[in-house]
Amino acid sequence: MATARWCAEWADGLITVNAPVAHLREMIDAYRDAGGRGPLHLQVHVSWAPEQAQAEALAYDQWRSNVFAPPVCWDLETVEHFDVVSADVPAQRVAEVVNVSADLGRHVGWLQEYVELGFDQIALHHVGQEQRGFIDAFGAEVLPKLRPGG
């Protein structure tokens, strides 16, 4: 929260990544309470596939090495180092940093919560390598259901 307060003094806005809603709310409040008036931007990591097991496997395969906070993530020098430290990461830990679900309605719910927090722009990052199915599904079934301001 200290960084959000600090950047409110000089930054044109706030950019962050998905986190628990309570944490995001505290961050936004700290930014706004310190005078931050710029737009709020959020990057959301998602893993979607038609089957839940597939969505979970995609997230685990592609994102398990991205669950480490600084300084660990800053100090790993090679891909092999990331592979070693992430070898025993539990799937639940990945689900803490990636919204993982085959249920498109669940994705609508997550994204609507972020909209209701006041984010002006939300960038979706599908962690899987195959993007076409994600783009088609979210374009048809998720994005049209989001409503500004709740």
- Quote the beta fraction: 5-15%
Percentage of residues in helical conformation: 40-55%
Count of beta strands: 4
Order of helices and strands: HEHEHHHHEHEH
Q: Using the alpha-carbon principal axes, give the shape.
A: flat
Backbone CA Rg: 17 Å
Q: Count structural domains.
A: 2
Low-pLDDT residue intervals, each spanning 5 or more residues: none
Q: Main β-sheet: number of strands, strand sense, barrel status?
A: 4 strands, parallel
What is the arithmetic mean of pLDDT? 92
Number of helices: 8
How far apart the termini lie comes to 25 Å
Instruction: Look at the helices and sheets and give the structural class.
Output: alpha/beta
Labels describing this entry:
four-stranded parallel β-sheet; 4 strands; flat; 8 helices; 2 domains; 150 residues; alpha/beta
Descriptive account of the structure:
The protein is built from eight helices and four strands. The chain is an alpha/beta fold. It has two domains: 1-38, no CATH class; 43-120 and 131-145, no CATH class. Helix 1 (2-8) runs parallel beside helix 2 (21-33) and helix 7 crosses helix 8. The chain is flat and about 45 Å long. The mean pLDDT is 92.
Summarize this, please?
The chain has helices at residues 2-8, 21-33, 52-63, 72-75, 79-85, 91-95, 104-117, 132-142, and strands at residues 14-17, 40-47, 99-100, 121-126. The chain has 150 residues and is an alpha/beta fold. The chain folds into two domains: 1-38, no CATH class; 43-120 and 131-145, no CATH class.
